[in-house]
Structures are given as structure tokens and as C-alpha cells.
Amino acid sequence: MLTQALLVDDSRSVLNFLKRHIEAEGLVEATTFLDPVEALARARERVFDLVLVDYEMPHMDGISFIRAFRTLPGCADIPIAMITSRQTDDVKMEALQVGATDFLPKQPQSLEMTVRLRNLVRLGAAVRKQNDRAADLASAVAAATRKLGEREEEIILRLALAVEYRDNDTGEHTLRVARYSRIIAEQLGLPPRLCRDIYLAAPLHDVGKVAIPDHVLLKPGKLTDDEMAVIRTHATIGEKILADSSCELIQLGAQIAAGHHERWDGAGYPNGLQADAIPVAARVVAVADVFDALTTRRPYKEPMPLDVARDYLVENQGRQFDPACVGAFLSRWDEVVEIAAGQQATPYQKTEARLAPIIECAAESPAVEDRLPEPVPAA
Ligand SMILES: [Fe+2]
User: Fold this and answer.
1) For the chain, percent helix, then strand, then coil, each to nearest 5?
2) β-strand partners of 321
3) How many CA atoms lie within 13 A of 312 on its CB side?
4) How many angstroms separate the CA atoms of 206 and 253, rounded?
5) How far is the CA of 289 from the centre of ligand 1 (A)?
6) What's the CA-to-centroid distance between 316 and ligand 1, angstroms?
7) From ligand 1's centre to the CA of 34, what distance in Å?
8) Which domains does the chain have, with CATH numbers?
9) Which residues make up the environment of ion ligand 1, defined by Cβ < 5 Å?
């Protein structure tokens, strides 16, 4: 690819001479402008590898041109030579300060002109190669980062589903809680990135159940107080499993695992945190998790009608739940109903699609009889 040179001079004869000279070795293609304002307009539209610009021109002098050119995207490193004749050292110093790379004497066919032009062309080609390499590298890094992010999301969801599969559900609870949580986070006005992260980390809320012994986790019938105490350790264990990660999503998962059974009035567990002391992500998931537990069928209970579960949230806002989270959830009630009915499309379908085989596999397996006492939703 030829080096692309931009030549700007108000003298047609100088322009013609420069063009002929710079294109002589067949390495450069030169675009010429008599008007520096037009030249700048063109430089905004396409990339040049090298610029030669006169000093004295109508509308705009060479220094103003260089100053404006340097502000254009991708033009910070492009070699610029100012063509000079009788300019003082002060003018040259100013040109250097605004970004000129070199000066060319206005002496046709001098040896100095030939050598410096050749060096400028080589410099222009080298800068372009370097910029191309940097762009390739940036694009490769972006692709690798995207892929890492996707893998991170997938591993988190597969881990959450593995835990849920061991417990008693088909994997759909995990996804519904994630979807409800996203609605609440969005309606709270949390930043889009945090909404997405809460959606992706919400499934980790019960990851601590992986460490609950089978004779307690899978026990049919009601649990004793001691067994309930064991079950309740899943919040702390989940936090420990996820703690101290360098991955932001897993850090958020740790907050959710630790805090999703805390209550707004401070009567929850494991730490009895109250109101805003409970991380917002945990307050969001608490509403989503309880609502889904209430409205889905379990071996020991029929699903609670959606309107009744809605009333439960309203009655318990300010006690069990953050009132803002309940308000946010109910403000998109139509979507909640669609999600509950399994009809909701989401903006994260790609991630969910990757999980479909696991969910189908889990759905085919016999359900394990649940053993939690009835009035405790979403343990
Ligand atoms: Fe839980």
C-alpha cells in the first residue's frame, strides 16, 4: 500500500513540484490542496501518513493548520513538515511546539530537499505500520477479553445450576431469579453495567448449599431447629466460597450469597444487617428469590397465586424487604407475570441459550422431595 501524503500550499507550481518529487520513487500517493481549510476537512474524513504544509497561506497559516491537524483523531503521531523559506527561528520554534516534525526548505531540487523528503516518507510509513499493529493488537485484546467475559458468565451460571440441580429444582429457578433481579435493578436506576452484573451473579445466591450435608439438605419432611441452623449456614459458606476473588462478578456473587437472607428490619441472617447496611444486590435478590419460591410448585406445596405473592411482598416491604426493591419489582408487573409463565424474552438470551442443555437434562431427572418447613420461602 502506498504511503498517503497530504500536500498543502497556496502555490500551484510548488504543489506540482512537491507532488512530482515525492511520488518519483513510486512509494507515495500525494493529495494536494491549495486551501488549508479544505485540506483539514479532507483529513477529517481519511487518514494520511505524511503532511507537507506551507507557512504563509490565505485563511490559515501553517502553524494554525498543524495545531488543528494534531487534534484530529489518529493524527497525533503523523509526521508533518512545514515548508519554509525566510521564516525566523521564532516561527520555526512555534511550529515545533504545535507539532511540526521537520522543516523543508523551499528550494526545488536541492539535495537537502530530496534527502529529507525520503526520510519523511520512511517515517510516515513506519508510523502507519506501528499504528496498524497497535490497532490489530487492540482488536485482538478486545476479542480475547470478550471471550473471557463470556466464559466467566458461563462458568458462574453452570456452577449455580449444579448447586440447584443437587437441591430440588430444574434450573429454571436460577434463571427466573436472575430475570426478576434484573428488572428490580433496572427499575432502581442502578448503572446498566451493575444491572447486568446483578443479573449474572444472582444465580450464585445459594451456592453455599453445595456444602450442606445430604442428610440435612435432602431430608424429607420438616427440619429440626438444629437442622435449620445448618441450612442457614449456606449464606456464610456461599460467601466464603466466592470471597476474595479478583473477578468483579464473583465478588458481587459473594455479596449476594452472604446477604440474600438478611432482612430490611435487621431480623435476618447471618449477620442481622439492617436496611442500607445490606448490599443493594442482596436486597434485590432477596425479593426475587422469595417471590420465585412462593410462586413455584414444590413437592410439599402448590404454587402461590401471583397476586397473593404480590400482596405478600407489599405486606412485608419495610420489614423483610427493601421497599424500593418491592416498588421496583411491582412497577413492571406485566413482565413479572410473563417470566413466571416462562414466556419472557431477555436481552441475555445468548448466555441462557448455552445453558439450555443443562436445564433440559435437569428437568428430565426425578425431583428430590423438598424438606423445608412450609412457611420459610427461599431458604
Ligand atoms: Fe438461600
Assistant:
1) 60, 10, 30
2) 317
3) 17
4) 10
5) 8
6) 18
7) 73
8) 3-139 (3.40.50.2300), 168-364 (1.10.3210.10)
9) 206
**Ligand 1 mean position to 307 CA, how many Å?**
23
In angstroms, what is the span from residue 235 Cα to ligand 1's centroid? 6
Nearest alpha-carbon partner for 235 in 189, 269, 266: 269
- From residue 267, alpha-carbon distances to 238, 262, 263, 270, 330 in Å are 20, 7, 6, 9, 24
Please check whether residue 219 is in contact with residue 319, taking contact to mean a CB–CB distance below 8 angstroms.
no
- Residue 48, Ramachandran bin (φ over 0: left; ψ between -120 and 50: alpha; else beta): beta
User: Of how many residues is the chain composed?
Assistant: 379
Q: What is the mean pLDDT of each run of 10 residues along the chain (379 residues)?
A: 91 90 88 94 92 90 94 91 80 89 78 82 88 92 88 82 70 85 96 93 91 85 89 95 90 96 95 96 97 83 89 95 97 93 54 50 37 42
CA gap 110, 125 in Å, rounded: 23
Residue 166 C-alpha cell reads as: 443437587
Stated as kind and residue range, the H or E segment containing 82 is strand 80-84
Determine the pLDDT at residue 153. 81
> 3-class DSSP state for residue 44?
helix
- Residue 275 CA to ligand 1 center (angstroms) comes to 18
From the CA of 206, how far away is ligand 1's center (Å)?
A: 5
In one-letter notation, the amino acid at residue 134 is A
Cell of 69: 491537524
Taking the centre of ligand 1 as the mean of its atom positions, its distance from the CA of residue 351, in whole angstroms, is 23
For residue 216, the CA-to-ligand 1 centroid distance in Å is 14
Give the whole-angstrom CA distance, residue 7 versus residue 65.
12
